[in-house]
Each structure stands twice: as structure tokens, then as C-alpha cells.
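explain this:
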Amino acid sequence: MTAVEVSVVLPAYNEADTIEQTVSATLETLASFLPEDTYEVIVAEDGCSDRTPEIATRLANEDSRVRHVHSDERLGRGGALEYAFERADGETLVYFDTDLATDMSHLEELVNAVRLDGYDVATGSRWMPDNRADRPAKRGIPSFGYNTLVRTVLRSDLKDHQCGFKAFDRGALETLLPLVQDEHWFWDTELLVKAQRNGYRVKEFPVDWTPKGDSKVDIVRDVFGMGSQVLRTFWELSVSPRITREVSLGAGTMLVVVALLLMTQYLDPDRVLREMAGAAPEIIALSAVVYAVSWPLRGVRYRDILVSMGYRERWGFLTGAIFISQTGNLVFPARAGDAVRAYVIKARRSIPYPSGFASLAVERVFDLLTITLLAGVVMIGLAATGSAEQLLTALTGGTVGGDAASSGRTAVAVAAGVGLAAIGAVVAIVASARSDRNLVRAVIGRLSSDSYADYVAGIIEGFVGDVQTVAADGSAFTRVGIGSLLIWTFDVITALIVFEAFGYSLTPSLVAVGFFAVSVGNLAKVLPLTPGGVGLYEGAFTVIVASLTPVGVAAAIGVAIVDHAVKNVVTIIGGIASMAWLNVSLTTAVEESQSAEAIEPETND
């Protein structure tokens, strides 16, 4: 029996009307240039809901050159192709879209580029000078924009990354596939980009192409899906390799130094230092004790979250895990400490990684909602008393110096965006938890008609489902909510005690503004724009306090710096003690947690 040399995969999702004609045309074209019995055609039927599986099975029974590879569930475009390629017999692996938009006269050139000419990858192109492609504006403009973005951001030399007409050498593809993360529409692009980055020979040649069917911009697929994947791949290939711990700490230190130098342009640093030097150390020490009291409350709240998800742990251990993770957030970039907590409870209590990340997500939602509500209540009070106008004047530079106002504007803008997003997310999640309808898929379905929406919906549903576990349990929701309110109240009280240390009496007005300033400052530092939120917190705090109270700018900055420093010092001391108690290395935890996404699926047995 002659060995199969070429395997052609036809990705099929609900193609009952065209699949038989496509298979027939493919066999006829392959027979025109390949020896008999050296090729096969595989229908990669991806969880279809129409008659495609029945037709594919019949075609395979009628012709030994045809095979049917079935998947019970949707794998996505890239996932279905990988699944079929793993089961193919040929050394040259080919696929093209079943609508036959690319002229089949190019199939011989595609196959032989890999089979005979020694290329590792070959791809048709609709954007080379010699091709003929009938591209209406609604297809051509998005395609041109997308390919320009990929060439610019991902440094690709190819003109067209999404033409569904490609061939691969089996050895090269088997090496590349573990590097490709996307399983849907971005699969082609990511594979081509990484093939180039890894030195494989890629041939791009012009093809004649005629669009089949209608096409339109799809918000979920094109904007959320493709755009986010371009950014993810850019980070993976161009940014992440350069971010060592030393670089991160160095860059973070430089940001803080630059911020301090800029501060000298609009404020005498000696004045700030004098204000800080005049603070009562015993009262500052008291603020540290008060802030430390809030940490066991964090452990109790986290225990309640895990209990609602089916895991029972002691609050003392969980407090230590939180200390370690928050210390990681102060030391490492991009909130890497969040993943550390998932590692700690996995390594010490065998709680699966997915559960660890889900519980952390629930905690973050409650944190954001609580902080937003605290800020919102005070903002309503400010509006009622007319003080909101003073804040707006400060943000435009009217009462607070230029760079301080700029920092405050940035911080308040970030805080407002985060707060609104938190409220919207929680309202949607709670409403969904109380409803029998699947609101996630309903909303995404309105935005997108593409099959990629199923993939996106699945990711969001996983997160929403974990939050709903708590939201649907009235008792758990109440306990976690009250715990969050107490935790952030202690955070504000710590700042108010620091005001006392600076010699300011706690009038009702200062207490209200203190609640607002701390809440907005904490919202501002949610995005990991600086190490530990240094700069954003102080900026928001200063511009609010200086514009709404008799406290001067220098004193407000001093209070903000000391308040933030007290909280960070308590966190680091607790983190070091917890690492010693639980025998956890922070660097090891970060390294281990980076591969957490590949860990086994969650079980709640």
C-alpha cells in the first residue's frame, strides 16, 4: 500500500450545503498532480448541529481517500485544525476554507512549496501585487487594517495572515503548535508570526480569491478577539522576555524617583519633609496597629468566600496567604502577587489553581464594589453641600499646583473608570445569579453572531459563575459584604489617625473627605501602573484633601506618603513573617504560579 504523503484538512462547522461539493473538488484537484493513494482528505467536523456529520460519514464510507474526524463539542477553528492534524497521516499537512474562495488552481503550488521545495510553511496571499482578489470595501478595509497592525506590532514580513489556504511540514508544525495559544480565528496569525520568529522558511504567494457569502465587522471576534490576541502576542514575544525581576524593580524605582523629582517643580520638598518630621511618631505607630487589625478580617472574609465554593480552611492560614500575596504585589510587576496566593493555597492546602484564581476574583469584585460605594456616598454628600465644585476646580489646576493637578486628574479618571466598571459588573452578575436566563450569552449574542462568541462566552461564564456562587447565597453575600466594609473602613481609619499625627483635628468634614480621598486613591491604584500604586494613590489623595479641606498641599502629600508607607510596611512585615511560618519562597511562588493556567481543571469533590 502506498504511504500517504499529503493530508488535506477541511475545517467544517455546519457546512451541510457545501461540504460534499468541496470534498469532490478537492479530490479531483489533488488527483491532477499527485500519485494515486498518496493523499487523503479529512473533514474536520467541529461539533456541528446540522447534517454535516452525517454527510461526512457517508463520504468516508464511499471513498477510502476521505476520512471524517468528529468532535462532540466546539473546539474553535484552530482547535479543530490541530485535532485533525494530530490524526492525519501525511508529512505535508494542508488546509483551506470549505467555501473554496481561493481558486483551486493554486493547490498544486501550495502543496509542492512544502512537499518539494523545502519550505516549512506556505500560505496564499490576497494582498500581494500579482494576485487577483475581489475585495469589497467591507472586507478589504478591515483586512488591510488588521494585516497592517500585525506587521507593525508583531513585526511580521507577510502581507496576508488570514487567507484560509495554508500548508505545513509535519515536523515544523509539531514544533510550532505547543507555542500557539489561540484556538480560534487568531490561530493562523499566531502560527505564522511564531514560525517567522523561530527561523522557519515561510513562502507567501499570490492567489486568486473570490469572497463567498456575506461578511461584516464582528465586535466580539474582530475587536475583542483579534485585537486582544495581537496585544497578548506582542507582550509574549516582545515585552515579557525583557521583564526580569531586576528590570522590573529598577524601572519601578526609576518611576518613583522621577515622580519625586517632578514634585520638586511645583512644591518645595523640604516643606513636605518638615511636615512629615513634625508628625507624632507614637500616633503613627497607633495607625500601624489599627491597620494590622484589618488583616485577620481579610482572612475571615477569604475563608467565607472559599466556604461558599466548597473549601474549608482556617482563617489564620488564609491571612498568612494574603500577606504573602500582597507582599508579592508590592515587589513584582503587574500584580504578580495575586497568582502567588493561588500557588500558596494549592501548595499548602491542595486547593486547585482554578478555585484559587476564582476566589481571588470574587474578593476583588467585593473590594472594588465596597470602595466604589464608600466613594460614591461621600461624593453625593459633596455634591449636596456644593463642595464638588471645589474638587473640579482643583482638578483643572485652579487650587493645586500643575503637576499635582495632573497626577490627581489621572488618578481620579482611573478611579472613576474602575468604579463604574465594578458597579456595572456586580449589578450584571447579581442580576444573572437571580435569573434563570443565561445573561452572559444573551449579551454577547447581541454583540456577535460569530462562533468565536461561544469561546468568549465560555471564559466569561467561568468567572461569572464563581462570583454567582457567592452572590446567589444570601448569607455568604452578606457576610463577605460586611467583611469588605469593615476592612476598608479600617483602611480609612488608618489614614485619619495619620491626620491626627500631623496635628489635624478630626472634624466631620475631614472625616468625610478622608473617606473619599482614601477610597478614590485605592481605586486609582487598582491598575498596576506603578509599583504598589505609588504615585497614583498619593496624587488622588492630595488633590482631594487639598481642595476640600484647610490642609495644605505639602501637608496633604505628607499625610498621603506616610499613610501609604504605614500600610506597605505592615504588609511587608506580615508577608515576611508569613513566608517564614508557611515556609514559602516568594520568588519560587511567582515562578510556579506563572504556569498555573496549565494546571488540571477544577474539581469540587
